[in-house]
Write a structure and sequence with these properties.
By secondary structure, this protein is an alpha/beta fold. The protein folds into two domains: 9-147 and 212-251, Rossmann fold (3-Layer(aba) Sandwich), CATH 3.40.50.150; 157-210, N-terminal domain of TfIIb (Single Sheet). Helix content is 28%, strand content 36%. The chain contains eight helices and eleven strands. The protein has helices at 12-15, 22-35, 53-58, 70-82, 113-117, 121-134, 148-151, 214-224, and strands spanning 41-45, 62-67, 89-91, 104-109, 135-146, 157-164, 167-179, 184-195, 198-210, 228-232, 245-251. The strands form two sheets. It has a seven-stranded mixed β-sheet, with helices on both faces.
Length: 252
């Protein structure tokens, strides 16, 4: 199994410092801990290199990390060892899991991971049904995605430049294909690593994402049986039409 995130996984913690700062991560952790209590296990779906797993473990939470990227999980394992932490890591595509052998107090899926996981309504429904079935009664699902009405996925493009240990990491991410009917983009990501003004390495990946609208996500969550739906926006304040982020909190 090769994940679209594997080709660039080795430098993810460097290049995405420009977008996922320590301050941003702290806000996310504070929100998660305000919603979920300690004592029972949390499942982090699309955990990546552990941006949420590690700080939650350090706060005394029980967290299991799940991702379909071997490269990302390699980084997570290295960080766990470095911080003298232990937890279960699952290398699996969530869409291929029929049932977990335990229940969770909470399931989190941050930073648009849901948009890469569920690209059709049936996939979204299947995954949401799995999440619902896997939660304790009263457990919460937290999905963090971007608001397509604000970020305009058809024109999605960003660039960043990060300097670390004498090397320059230049990243470009651009939508090269957009299906208006399904709201799906195919984007190219290119990372060039430079030293002394020369390119010493190129990393490329292709990412396919379904940009779920607020109404679609709320409707699906209600349809599969979640009893309470709440929506938050930027900085986890109440959602507004102008919010760039959409954070769905669905309670079983």
């Amino acid at each position: 199994m090769i994940s679209p995130n594997d080709p660039t996984a080795e430098v993810v913690d460097v290049v995405y410092d420009a977008f996922t700062s320590a301050e941003q991560t702290k806000k996310e952790i504070n929100f998660i801990t305000s919603q979920l209590k300690k004592g029972k296990t949390i499942l982090d779906v699309g955990c990546g290199s552990g941006r949420h797993v590690l700080p939650l473990l350090k706060k005394g939470y029980q967290v299991i990390g799940l991702d379909n990227s071997k490269g990302m999980l390699k980084l997570l394992k290295e960080k766990l060892e470095k911080n003298n932490l232990q937890t279960e890591i699952i290398y699996k595509d969530i869409r291929k899991i029929k049932k977990f052998d335990q229940k969770f107090a909470g399931i989190i899926c941050f930073w648009g991971a849901f948009c890469e996981i569920a690209k059709t309504e049936q996939e979204a429904r299947n995954v949401l049904e799995l999440f619902l079935d896997s939660l304790d009664t009263g457990g919460k699902l937290i999905i963090d995605i971007f608001n397509p009405k604000v970020i305009k996925p058809e024109a999605l493009e960003y660039k960043s430049k990060v300097k670390k240990e004498g090397q320059i990491y230049e990243t470009s991410f651009k939508a090269i294909k957009f299906d208006k009917e399904t709201n799906i983009t195919t984007s190219k990501e290119l990372i060039e690593i430079k030293e002394n003004r020369k390119i010493i390495k190129k990393l490329e990946s292709e990412i396919v994402q379904r940009w779920w609208r607020k109404e679609e996500l709320e409707k699906l969550a209600k349809k599969v049986g979640f009893s309470k739906i709440e929506l938050f926006g930027d900085d986890f304040l109440p959602f507004k039409k102008s919010s760039e982020r959409m954070v769905l909190v669905a309670t079983k």
